[in-house]
Known about the structure:
Layout: H1 9-15, H2 24-40, E1 44-55, E2 58-61, E3 66-69, H3 71-76, E4 82-89, H4 92-104, H5 106-134, E5 139-140, H6 156-162, H7 165-169, E6 172-173, E7 179-180, E8 184-192, H8 215-220
Antiparallel strand pairs: 1-2, 1-4, 2-3, 4-8, 5-8, 6-7
Amino acid sequence: MITLENVSVSETARYMGVKGEPDENVIRLIEKADSAARKAVAPKYVYRVSGVEIVSDGVKLSDCGIFLSGDDIKKHFERCGKAVVFAATLSAEADKLIRRAEVTDMAEALAMDCVCSSLIEQFCDKAEEEIFREVKAAYRTWRFSPGYGDLPISVQDELVRALNAQRRIGLTVTPENILIPSKSVTAVIGISEVPVHERSGKCEFCNMRGMCAFSAQFKEE
């Protein structure tokens, strides 16, 4: 069982749009939201391993019947023979907490939203470590999600269906390709026998690169 730890106050404050060190009020909001969220959410994940076939215009996940189009995902998997297809969610409880806070205090709602964003990333990191204690991989890539770079977000639904994630963890996709519950992630992780391409920062394939609060961090990495 994965145990969630306190979120990083500085990282969560940046999600909230805070520049520099957060003040006492922001810290108090984050700590309150963090405590409430970790007590309420019921995070879960699912995964499966698939063969990988590199083709001219993307990548085929041969065991899932899924085609991932684009040059970015092709580069991501260029040395990989297999992939882990992955989905995780904090559960509907996270959305309930955010909606409840929106009724009474928008500052608390923002803090709760950003805390839950930090928690789902933390959970995905812990889940990935757990997965790769079971799945042997000499090398692996980082998580690549639909919507990164030129990988269409529309593949979200195919990943969820391939994992049977609606039945297994309660994860669905709207016609607009939005994950429900909202604090959820789908991704693919490449498995290789040789060293793989390393990104230079978290923002490398983001379509908002250079336009968000994390651009400065990207430049430093």
